[in-house]
Amino acid sequence: MFQAYILFSVISFANCILLGKIDNFVIIGAADETILNITRNQCICEMIQSNYSTSAFNYYSNNQTCQLFYSNITFIYVQYQLNTLILFVNQSNLAIQLVRSIARPVVCPSAVWNPNGTTVAGSANGDGGSSSSQLNNPFDIAVDSALSVYVADYSNYRVMKCINGSVNGTVVGPQLGFGIGPDTQHLHTATALYLDSTESNLYIADTHNCRILKWNIVSNNVTVVVGGSGCGSSLNTFYWSFGNIYVSDYNNNRILKFPPNSNSSTLGVIVAGTGTSGSASNQLNTPAGIYVDERDNDTLYVADRLNNRVMKYRTNETNGTVVAGGNGLGTSFNQLYYPRYVFVDSFGTVYVSDTANHRIMKWVKDARNGTLVVGVTGLTGTTPSRLNNPYGIRLDKSGNLYVADYTNDRVQRFTIDNSSC
């Protein structure tokens, strides 16, 4: 049966401005002009304005789905969302300002993954080295919307990029390998990566040079954004959120926050930990990976490595709560053994690289016990189902899991199975 829908309204048109794009999701803003729509990569964006109220929609031609937005004079809201969460900052009088979008996979809490991984970087048999098809102790990873994988190739003092479908990588960012000092073309152990929402900047933790570098993918420029003035503290991993950079200062048992536009002279503010190791709710013991939930007012998650737990800190709160582990070192599903990295999905499920147990675990929100995702507890190996000291973890836009398999010198991808959802 044919159906037609007609909407009558007295309107004036506003300009539909492309402010950014992630995974075919278009972000929109408005100005008082008379242009109606912009089409970009299978998405039609249209916006109308009436009496200082703005409505807009994105139509996705590939799956025939609409996404609707509406606003008052100062804010734009998401009324219906497809596969992502889009957050708009305050837009006073609908002037165009920086807009931040957060696109994370929608992974239902009961989802499972194929236990056999596929090697997407490095050698499948664990043969480490320095050629373009090899890695040497991959520490962390980042995945872009085209499913290219960036790898912090720790013991090769480089960052590698492998495009989807090829394990032959190219060196990106600093080009000259090992180096100590202020030269931005050298690295001294890369331990963490963060690809920003525009996919135009890759942030690199250059740990033993005690700094964070920003590589502009478009201009190929490398600059120092945090540290670089000596090693008063030792950073391990970091996370970028709305311009703020959170740093895991593992030797000093604390997490530092650096404001936007920081440089080598900027001092960080302590947001978790006291500077003294311990197991109280306000203490950390050699913190490793961190994750900042921008959806939840920058709630901070910390892999509290030697306390064998993951801690959650609300903004401006110094006492954290245990959300994974916390029951001593061990192999049970309510325990962790030197956790390294943490990731949180849009449902609040916490994923942990349980490094010394050679497995990836997840804790759904408020769960007391974790669930094994991939790996075999306590067993190592180079077969597709085994891990050997897993470090960095990421989910791509479809929910597939990527693991930096540190001692196996490879990056594994485990395909999600949503049939249980």
- Assigned CATH class of the largest domain: Mainly Beta
Tell me about the largest β-sheet. Answer: 6 strands, antiparallel
Distance between the termini: 32 Å
Q: Which structural class do the helices and strands define?
A: mainly beta
Sum up the structure in keywords:
mainly beta, Neuraminidase, 2 domains, six-stranded antiparallel sheet, four-stranded antiparallel sheet, disordered N terminus
Q: Mind explaining what this structure looks like?
A:
This protein is mostly beta strands and 421 residues long. It folds into 2 domains: 12-102, no CATH class; 112-420, TolB, C-terminal domain (Neuraminidase). The chain is built from no helices and 36 strands. It is globular.
List the topology elements.
Blueprint: E1 12-13, E2 15-22, E3 25-31, E4 37-40, E5 43-50, E6 53-60, E7 65-71, E8 76-78, E9 85-86, E10 101-102, E11 112-113, E12 118-122, E13 138-143, E14 149-153, E15 158-162, E16 170-172, E17 190-195, E18 201-206, E19 211-216, E20 222-227, E21 235-241, E22 244-249, E23 254-258, E24 269-272, E25 287-293, E26 299-304, E27 309-313, E28 321-325, E29 339-344, E30 350-354, E31 359-363, E32 371-375, E33 390-395, E34 401-405, E35 410-414, E36 416-417
Antiparallel strand pairs: 1-5, 2-3, 4-5, 5-6, 6-7, 7-8, 9-10, 11-36, 12-35, 13-14, 14-15, 15-16, 17-18, 18-19, 19-20, 21-22, 22-23, 23-24, 25-26, 26-27, 27-28, 29-30, 30-31, 31-32, 33-34, 34-35
